[in-house]
Specification:
This protein has helices at about 20-40, 55-65, 70-75, 80-95, 105-115, 130-140, 160-170, 190-195, 215-220, 230-235; strands at about 5-10, 15-20, 100-105, 120-125, 150, 180-185, 200-205, 225. The chain is α/β, with parallel strands linked by helices. The chain has two domains: about 5-20 and about 100-235, 3-Layer(aba) Sandwich (Rossmann fold), CATH 3.40.50.1000; about 20-95. Helix 1 runs antiparallel to helix 4.
Length: about 240
């Protein structure tokens, strides 16, 4: 069945919400990865704002470089192990109850509606590595609605991620999507920027912890809402 639109959702802050201490746990997981895989100590006073909008692969690379892993070939050679340790530490934190992931109610309602209608192609566009992306969605009860996505494993920035997402969608759904048929939905200015990079329609939703309604408007999102069940979203998506 030919799809009318390709709708790509960010995960953190858009589809899924988490506990307020998640940033501190993220720092701990990063530190464990760099120490176990690359043998370097990380300063736990990581300035997280430096990595806002980044993708996991490049964030790990940057922090490893700051810790002394200056040879990118060394980083790349061990990235597969780093990715697994990063996932294992996330899984342990969730299973212990230290951090939790829940679906944003309006996001879940919208996704269920689109999934039932089945006339649009649904996908993910996220800075998470793939194994963590699916794990978060599974924990939040949203895994069943998605079968396709573009993740941080193979790219170094969000603009590249956007191009990668459209190219993967063309192959996965066996049809091409022109820019006017692509919609990218996210909670940060970086989601808006990557959408604009490929000429997509952008929807900013002010449900994240990094950027608010005014930030998304200033960035030039085509539509900014406080809830993904806003009537304007439903109209835009047809």
């Amino acid at each position: 069945m030919k799809k009318n639109k390709l709708i790509l959702f960010d995960i953190d802050g858009t589809l899924v919400q988490t506990t307020s201490n998640s940033v501190q746990h993220w720092k701990h997981r990063i530190g464990k990865v760099i120490k176990e895989v690359y043998g370097k100590e990380v300063d736990f006073q990581i300035e997280t704002h430096r990595y806002n909008g980044g993708v996991d692969r490049n964030v790990l690379r940057s922090i490893a470089r700051d810790a002394g892993v200056t040879d990118d070939t060394v980083f790349d050679a061990h990235f597969s192990k780093a990715r697994q340790v990063f996932h294992d530490t996330l899984k342990a934190s969730v299973e212990s109850g230290e951090i939790l992931y829940h679906a944003h109610p309006a996001a879940l309602e919208l996704v269920q509606l689109l999934y039932t209608k089945n006339d649009h192609a649904l996908g993910l566009i996220t800075g998470n590595i793939e194994i963590n992306a699916w794990f978060k969605l599974d924990h939040a009860g949203m895994r069943e609605y998605f079968s396709f996505g573009a993740f941080a494993d193979d790219v170094n920035d969000r603009n590249e991620l956007a191009r990668h997402a459209v190219a993967k969608a063309t192959k996965y759904f066996a049809q091409s999507f022109v820019p006017r048929d692509v919609v990218i939905i996210g909670d940060t200015i970086y989601d808006i920027r990557c959408g604009k990079h490929v000429g997509a329609t952008t929807i900013g939703v002010a449900t994240g912890m990094t950027h608010g309604h005014d930030d998304l408007v200033k960035e030039g999102a085509d539509l900014v809402v406080d809830s993904l069940m806003d009537e304007r979203v439903l109209t835009l998506l047809g």
